[in-house]
Structure formats: C-alpha cells, structure tokens
Description:
Elements: E1 5-14, E2 17-27, E3 32-36, H1 43-51, E4 58-63, E5 66-67, E6 78-81, H2 93-97, H3 99-103, H4 108-121, H5 137-149, E7 155-159, H6 167-184, E8 187-192, H7 195-201, E9 204-209, E10 212-217, H8 219-224, H9 229-234, E11 239-246, E12 249-252, E13 255-258, E14 268-273, E15 278-282, E16 288-295, E17 299-305, E18 311-317, E19 329-334, E20 340-342
Parallel strand pairs: 3-8, 3-9, 6-7, 7-8
Antiparallel strand pairs: 1-2, 1-4, 4-5, 9-10, 11-12, 11-14, 12-13, 14-20, 15-19, 16-17, 16-19, 17-18
Amino acid sequence: MTASVELRGLRKTFGQVYALDGLDLTIQPGELITFLGPSGCGKTTALRCVAGFEHPDTGAVLLDGADITAIPANRRDAGMVFQSYSLFPNLSVRDNVAFGLRIRKAPVARRHARAAELLELVGLPSHGDRYPHQLSGGQQQRVALARALALEPRVLLLDEPLSALDAKVRVALREEIRRLQLSLGITTIFVTHDQEEAMAVSDRVAVLRAGRLEQCATPAEIYDRPATPFVAEFVGTMNHVPGTLVGDKVRVLGRLLPVDGPAPAGPEVRVLIRPEAVLVAPDEQGAGTVTASSFRGASARLRLDLGPDGEIIADVPGHESVRLAPGTKVAVRLVERPVLVAAPEAVREPAAA
C-alpha cells in the first residue's frame, strides 16, 4: 500500500513566473513529508504535479521508480484531500466515502463494508446515513480523508486540509491524521504554510522558496540547524543581533560563539538567535531593560531593549515573568552553542504567507 515518490528536476512556469525551478526530492515509503513555505513558493504546484492535476514543463515524477509524469490523475494510485472538503452534498456520508469504489463498479456490499471500515477508522462509525450539511467542518474533513483512503492508494496527498478549521479542531485533526498515517504506513505528502502544523506531524519538512528546495530535514533539525538564513527566518521566531566575525567564531553580546555553517564576508554580520537561547536575569546593573512581557502559560515572551544592540526577544519559564515585569533591568547572555550568521544587508522575508 505504500510507495516511494521521487521528484526529478521539476520545472513549472505560469507566464513569466517560475512556480517550480528545478525541484529535486525523494520521499521514502511510509514517510510523511510536509511541503512548507510562504504563498507562491511552489508547494501546492509540486503536490498537484504528483497528483497529476498539473504537468511539469520539464522533469519527472516517479512512483516506486516508474515514471508517472504522463499518466492521468485518475490512474496514479494517489488519494487526495483538499482544503475545501469537496464532498458531494447530495450523497450520504457512506456514499461519499464509497464514491471511488462506485466509479470502479465495486459490488454494493463491498462498497458499504469498506465505507463502514473507514468511518470507524476516522471516528465516525455512526455517521454513515448523514449528509455533509449535517456535519461540522472537522467531521467533513474526516469524511474527505476516509474517501481518499477508500481505494487503498499508495500515496496520500493533503493540500492544506486543516486551514478552514478553527484552531482547536485543527490540533485534534492533525493528531488524528498522523495517527492514521502511522497505523496505515502510507506515504503522505502534506502541504501547509503553518509552521507549527508542519513541525507537529512530519517525519521530514521540505522548506520551499521561489520554487526551490531550501532544506529538507527532520523538524528538530529544521528548527535547531537551519541550512539557510531564509529557513531560520521562516521557521519559528528569530532574533537578529549585530556581531563581528573573529576567525571561525562570532562576537555577539559580549560572547564569542562558534559559527554554524558558512559565514559571509565579514567582519560585520547579523547573528540569528532563537528566543529560548537568550538567558535573562534581573540585574540593576544589567545592560538590558524589559519593555514588554506576554504570558503564555508554561512560558513568557519578553521584549528587551539592549541599547546600541537594539531589541531582542527572549522566552523564559512562565513563573519567571513575575520578577521580569516591564521596566525591570536585566542581564542578558546567550546559550553556548553554534549560531547562524548572515550578511547585514540580507533580506528578511516574512514568516507567514
């Protein structure tokens, strides 16, 4: 039921715009990989090329080593779940799930048995006789997921399936999707622009920018060891602090830290630092001042004024926020670990689509 997917040098243009610009990527059997990036980065176009709804100008899509680039979408052995659910309003839930089997002229008993099996799998065993308008958004998306699985596809394609749902339902459903994917062992491509969503469900995350792959790695590696300043900027929150290169290290906020990866021509650079790598303590003689505090339960986010070094954001344990109220003078130091550096003039891109 599972398969490898390989994208080889995919290029796709729309007018003068490159939606895909030489995309190369291999997805292993049973892996859930997420295409992540801002609007216009090519993630949905790449998914649609795998599905067969778009055809690349050049390059190839391979399924278990076989070139399927020219094969029509209905013969690609892939199940797709869309953002808009796309359920048939005049069909019951049971018939929506079994629609693909009906098209393939499967016997009625087989269709109903398969629909019942899948509705049980997605947690809607008693909803077979209902119609889409009688379901919540989350329930409709579960039905869409069951329908995509009805033909036992070798690849499951999810095109921003949770973006139309409210936050609480999104979290519950993404966990359900991951549970199902792991239990079925099905190769899955998930498209989203939501960083938290990508990090929560994926074996690997492929970060795209302008039709090209910036980095493909585990969520932990993407977050802790971003390959480029763009990835560092796009995934999570990142501070930009002025620093000076000293050999293979950088001097920043009074510390000499090792540089992670290549460094631009120096000596002046900007150092990229995660908020949790900023350590803060009350200190009347400290060089920083807390200007804002946002309590988040287990943690609190502080905005600090460092004078000539500008502003910096720090994440601290929630209980620390009481003694780090706005106006508090603080000492600031950095966790001892390698940091990513970039040229001072490097463009900072928005972290959301």
